[in-house]
Amino acid sequence: MKTSVALIGFMGVGKSAVGKILAEKLGKTLVEMDAVLIKKTRKSIKQIFDEGEISFRELEIKAAKELAKGRNQVISCGGGVVLNKINIDRLKKDSIMVWLTASPGVILKRTRTDKTSRPLLKSNSRVSEIRELLRYRKPFYERAADIKIDTSKLDVDSVVNLILKKLSEYEDFSSQK
After folding, report:
1. Which residues of 163-175 are buried (b: 16+ CB within 10 A; e: fewer)?
2. Which of the 8 DSSP states describes residue 173?
3. Its pTM surpasses 0.90
4. CA-CA distance, 130 to 151, in Å (whole number)?
5. Cβ-based burial of 84 (10 A; exposed 0-12, middle 13-18, buried ≥19)
6. CA geometry: angle at 76 spanning 74 and 81, to 5°?
7. How far is the C-alpha of 112 from the C-alpha of 57, rounded, in Å?
8. Residue 77 has pLDDT above 70, yes or no
9. Is 90 exceeded by the pLDDT of residue 46?
């Protein structure tokens, strides 16, 4: 019986905002993967990423391994966690994987004001970068996802309610803490 929910998806799709409310409604603990990395390294995500994407992904693998051992959690994963199959294999053991999506324009609008903590969006042609990264990551998200929800035209409460409805359809998911 799975007891956790892992939120996956690109930056700006609503993982953190949705995760907070979803965890409250399910009576589960919210865990932000990025916060785990920050706590362990005592560095910002940008600082960690500036040391190289490979070392960032290695830290992410360690964090996913640790978080996958927990139960009764809502895990807000980093946007690139799906790039390493081992992360998904570990998380899927006790988590329903919920892929949150949004259009490139919506992602740009949601991330536009955050110029410092989005290490993958560096240039002035951010919408092109978003499109390219989404195109590359799409098959990874598709393989990992149990549930897919487009957040482009939905508010946070609507997304949470959709997730709750879809979770109720999973016989192997326990919404009980």
Report:
1. beebbeeeeebbe
2. B
3. yes
4. 16
5. middle
6. 125
7. 24
8. yes
9. no
In the block, residue with structure tokens 């499109």: 131
In angstroms, rounded to a whole number, what is the distance separating the alpha carbons of residues 49 and 2?
32
Helices (H), 69-118: 85-92, 104-111
Phi, psi for residue 174 in degrees, rounded to 5: -105, 115
| Cα–Cα distance for residue pair 81/44, rounded to 1 Å | 17
Q: What percent of the chain has pLDDT over 90?
A: 78
Please answer whether residues 76 and 21 qualify as being in contact, where contact means their C-beta atoms are separated by less than 8 angstroms: no
Query: Which residues make Cβ contacts (< 8 Å) with residue 78, sequence separation at least 6?
Result: 33, 34, 37, 60
Cα 89–Cα 22–Cα 134 angle in degrees, nearest 5: 55
For residue 141, the one-letter residue type is Y
Tokens of 153: 């035209």
Mean pLDDT of 29-54: 93
Please give the single-letter amino acid code of residue 145.
A
Nearest to 8 by CA among 157, 153, 172, 139: 139
